[in-house]
Automatic annotation (TrEMBL):
Gene behind the chain: LOC100180570
Nuclease listed as a keyword: no
Recorded family membership: Belongs to the tubulin--tyrosine ligase family.
Listed SUPFAM superfamilies: Glutathione synthetase ATP-binding domain-like
Name of protein: Tubulin polyglutamylase TTLL7-like
Length: 502
């Protein structure tokens, strides 16, 4: 059967076959159960291993890896491009190609600046940024302008473009002291944070992307709140180097003896987002709007990366039909800053968020993030067999398909030409119907297996969907220009058609 017409997660036909084979196995010898296997040689986290086991995924031993192809590959870090090309249609890998376009600080700054220029009111959630050394002069002009015109003395924060865990970060009250170092970015320091018990905080949220062709994404409804360990004071020349006050990274603050570990998730230096939302609600804040704004920020960030990952994905997987099961999925860690007015700001996106389980709160929240993601990704033992059957069917169809020369309508009579066009149209409609059925079944499966996640794209609200489609259309034009016009048109047409179905 053509994979494009198969109904996800399993067709009635296949279900009957599976049932019959189960009944047969009762009378004949017992059938060996196929299990879903994972290759975790490139993963250092015990929490990932225990989460895989919790959802009945079997971890392959080092010695059997060369003998048995795994269903799932888990990489902590960046995956080489060839790996995406090598993957069989039934296999899954926990990264997308080109996700670095939002996960490296300089690329994020560059891409967000482009979107900000095109849609300033929509893309205003990233602090003003400069990529060094190329934008060093622009930074100096801005700093001088602020002093002259606005009589404002902004603080700046300089970070390595590819850094993490607070390494190499410096704050400056005076922009002239900033060095135009290679591979760094400078941001305007957001100096009016929302404080929790007097401490600065940031939020770590987890977003699961299961498909890029077209996009499907989910946001976990809990996460971590990381607190600084010295009470916050407005930045001054004297406190610029107090990293326990200005940075909220766990890796930085755990070095402070004042770091508080607590078994309750609403106390200490690491708390849960759920507990923060309860606290804010009880303090009179509009947490429903805050959560909506956070979802909006995450979706818009994915909109920025969508053209990049879709383009790379199609380049790596040329034969793969749109709407088919994606071989890639990814859990992204979003670091979000809240200001005093409760506006969320995007600080960075991590494509290799830490799955370390130092404390119970880490194991609880991150464990849920991984397990529920694996359920949503829905790797099935039957996928391998189905993939083989699809390959055979496709090969057969190719053999039987009339050759290109016979397809040319030039040698046909007028009525035969008309028949040919009608048949082709019928095939196209059948294909589209197959996609719609597939998406409906996929959505049904997801709705029953969301766990702690909420679907953020495609979203239910029609007005919102239309807004996102318009932003996607701009993003495709900006980032892919006329290079890939036909596929740009076909993906945007898909999103538009989806808006009319809801
Ligand atoms: P890293 O990848 O090294 O963790 P981040 O960009 O996440 O770098 O910054 C580390 C910390 O610095 C953040 O968690 C936050 O507390 C603080 N920070 C970063 N950028 C800003 C900013 N523009 N305004 C205020 N605080 C910031």
């Amino acid at each position: 059967m053509d994979e494009r017409f198969s109904v996800f997660p399993i067709t009635e036909e296949e279900e009957t076959q599976e049932r019959t084979s189960r009944q047969d196995s009762g009378s004949k010898k017992k059938k060996k159960k196929t299990c879903i296997t994972a290759n975790v040689t490139n993963c250092k986290y015990d929490l990932v291993r225990s989460s895989l086991e919790a959802v009945n995924i079997f971890i392959l031993k080092e010695e059997s890896i060369s003998l048995q192809a795994a269903y799932l590959f888990w990489f902590d870090s960046v995956v080489p491009m060839e790996k995406f090309q090598e993957m069989k249609a039934y296999q899954r890998i926990n990264h997308f190609p080109s996700m670095g376009e939002i996960c490296r600080k300089d690329y994020l700054a560059r891409n967000m600046a482009k979107m900000h220029r095109a849609r300033p009111t929509e893309f205003n959630f990233v602090p003003r940024s400069w990529i060094l050394p190329s934008e060093y002069n622009l930074l100096q002009v801005y700093a001088q302008d602020c002093r002259k015109k606005k009589r404002k003395f902004p603080t700046f924060i300089q970070k390595p473009a590819n850094g993490a865990m607070g390494n190499g970060i410096q704050l400056f009250r005076n922009a002239e002291k900033i060095q135009p170092c290679e591979q760094t970015i400078v941001q305007e320091y957001l100096d009016k944070p929302l404080l929790l018990d007097g401490y600065k905080i940031d939020l770590r949220l987890y977003c699961l992307v299961t498909h890029c062709d077209p996009l499907r994404a989910f946001l976990y409804k809990d996460g971590l709140v990381r607190l600084s360990t010295e009470k916050y004071v407005n930045p001054t020349e004297q406190n610029m180097d107090q990293m326990f006050m200005h940075l909220t990274n766990y890796s930085v603050n755990k070095q402070n003896e004042k770091f508080e570990r607590h078994s309750d998730y609403d106390r200490g230096s690491k708390r849960s987002i759920k507990s923060l939302l309860i606290y804010l609600k009880n303090s009179g804040y509009d947490t429903a709007t805050l959560w909506r704004n956070i979802c909006d920020l995450v979706v818009k960030t994915l909109i920025v990366v969508s053209p990049h990952i879709l383009h790379s994905y199609r380049m790596c997987r040329p034969g793969q039909a749109p709407h088919s099961d994606s071989v890639c999925f990814e859990i992204l860690g979003f670091d979000i800053f809240l200001d005093r007015k409760l506006k969320p700001w995007l600080l960075e996106v991590n494509r290799a968020p830490s799955f370390g389980g130092d404390e119970k709160i880490d194991r609880d929240i991150k464990g849920g993030v991984i397990r529920d993601a694996l359920r949503l990704v829905n790797i099935r033992a039957s996928d391998k067999k189905r993939n083989l059957a699809n390959q055979k069917a496709e090969a057969q169809r190719r053999l039987l398909r009339p050759s290109q020369s016979r397809l040319s309508t030039g040698n046909l009579s007028t009525s035969a030409q008309r028949r040919f066009i009608i048949n082709r149209r019928k095939e196209e409609l059948k294909e589209k119907l197959g996609w719609v059925r597939k998406e409906a079944a996929r959505e049904e499966y997801e709705d029953a297996n969301l766990g702690g996640y909420a679907r953020i794209f495609p979203c239910h609200d029609r007005t919102q969907r239309e807004r996102y489609t318009s932003l996607l259309s701009d993003a495709f034009q900006l980032f892919l220009q006329s290079k890939s016009a036909p596929f740009q048109k076909n993906i945007i047409d898909h999103y538009r058609a989806h808006n009319h179905c809801g």
